[in-house]
Input
Amino acid sequence: MISTHILDLSTGQPAAGVQVTLEKDGAPLKTEATNADGRIAFQVAHEPGVYRLTFAVAAYARRQGLAPFFLDVPIAFEVTDTGRKYHVPLLLSPYGFSTYRGS
Output
């Protein structure tokens, strides 16, 4: 399973309604929006390869009454062990972001 969640560091709340696109080896697989808890669990075949999550954060910033600085946040990672989950969180603020390999 490949999953993500977004925490808005400026509010301390999950970022709901953010469109996230999952790609594998450059081909789009799915686009979904984060739920009320800022989470998505993509139900896709779990195969080795290079994946990219692209978070469309500009619309979210506008909904918060902010002029967006970042339009999209792309995060590329490689799946090698198909026996484990891959959780890739995004910590978001108006002028910065961070990510890490979650559990």
